[in-house]
Amino acid sequence: MALKTPSTFLSPLFLPKQYTLSIFNPVSLNIYRKPTPLSCKSTHSHSPSQLPLSDTKLLSSEPEGTGAASPTRGDRFLERQQADEAAKLLIKEIKKTKKKTKKVLKVNTATACCYGCGAPLQTSEVDAPGFVDMDTYELKKKHHQLRTILCGRCRLLSHGHMITAVGGNGGYSGGKQFVSADELREKLFHLRYEKALIVKLVDIVDFNGSFLSRVRDLAGANPIILVVTKVDLLPKGTDFNCVGDWVVEAITKKKLNVLSVHLTSSKSLVGIAGVASEIQKEKKGRDVYILGSANVGKSAFISALLKMMAQRDPAAAAAQKYKPIQSAVPGTTLGPIQIDPFLGGGKLYDTPGVHLHHRQAAVVHSEDLPILAPQSRLRGQSFPVSSKNGMVGKFNSDGLNGFSIFWGGLVRIDVLKVLPETCLTFYGPKKLPIHAVPTHEADEFYKKELGVLLTPPTGKDRAGEWRGLETVQQLQINFEDAERPASDVAISGLGWITIEPRRESLGISESNFSETTKQLDIVVHVPKPVEIFVRPSIPVGKAGAEWYQYRELTEKEEEIRPKWYF
């Protein structure tokens, strides 16, 4: 039988059984392509004619062999092709195995969270967020359904229980404190390094207190859509054209560059369709993060957004089944909650609220928090009260001068020097009572009635723990036109007080004051560290549309000014 070529011995098809391709490394395999000429040197020179016939055949560059067993050129070509294909298949199998291994690791290392609040699931602490009983956890884990679990705290919140979990700087006194406000804030720092679309929410009732003026520290250079929530709470007859212009003027002064401004109501779905359209237009494959201060209405907004998107997007309709829990308790959401409402890529995230230490909610007891949340349309309460015959009650011809007005137990305003017809109108929660007493009796009245007439704090026990109205700020408010409101005094986390220099319905003669008086002096007392803001008056009610004036804009301002939608 003729000798086989070297390619025959190197072919995978002719390897011994113990060296099959299942354990063969294709990277180190040098597949035979072409016979290499062999040459031998010897000290004795021989001519080709002197060599034996067998040696001459071995030195041939292309040994042919003789007989039927000799491989042809076609056989060697087929052997090389088969070896190449086998090596390629083996490399593909190795790559697939590596990919499968990586995917399994990602699933195993992921932390399962409650879909209602975003807290990591746990089975040890019953009162802590994220708790679920062991049997339920094991059953859901077995069927790969951990993302469908609602923790015990969320179940209680959904039934109206007031359970706080956030303490520390900006957290809430009383109740249980399992996580600090600073820890929640740290969960948002990664946004500045990611490419994302930020939807920032602001509460119209607490516009200044919930604005997050340093939002760029969290959002970085990412584009921002500004959404103003709870506009359905504004007084009846409000012209939203005026309110929209007022909001844009406010953010222009804060030098915050935004794509657009939307006035919305999660309850009535007003303006939600415009936000959904803007998100689809601007997200461009990026993830979308809903950002805002605590209790600004992020979870309610997401529910309304999913409801609106579900009309056209089946992915959003499916995402509605496991949406974040809604509650009146600030700090309901304790971790990022991932939602998949988009068919074209990108995810939606509900984020923990940014807890601000300067809001009223950070100083009152956890059980008094519902009092601070308006549940129905605002109606301004004015002092002094006017009638057809003039002022009603204890006020004389000097108006509010020499009086102190208490807004619950949270705010005290001492009127030092105003016009006789000056009127103060309070916009905020209806459950906060308003009482006016002479300033020289104010200290004794507050000490006696705190926790009784002046609430919150509610009850004498909490009143005994109350630190009082430690922050005192004197305000000098200038005005040009006495027929228009001079300004608003906004109390962070509560509402605002509109100061009108002159209200004609009070029926006081104009001769009682000097026309040269263009300044109003008041003193505001609030708990520490609640902040006080003096701002241009927001045009609410039917009267707002009458006195509000639109500012004339230059062409450059028109170009860079964000548009607002309602």
Automatic annotation (TrEMBL):
InterPro entries: G_CP_dom (IPR030378), GTP-bd (IPR006073), NOA1 (IPR044229), NOA1/YqeH-like_C (IPR048422), P-loop_NTPase (IPR027417). GO terms for molecular function: GTP binding; GTPase activity. Residues 39-59 have a biased composition (Polar residues). PROSITE patterns: G_CP. It comes from the Eukaryota. It holds the Pfam family MMR_HSR1. Residues 181-357 form the CP-type G domain. Residues 39-77 are annotated as: Disordered. CDD domains: YqeH. This is CP-type G domain-containing protein. It comes from Gossypium darwinii (Darwin's cotton).
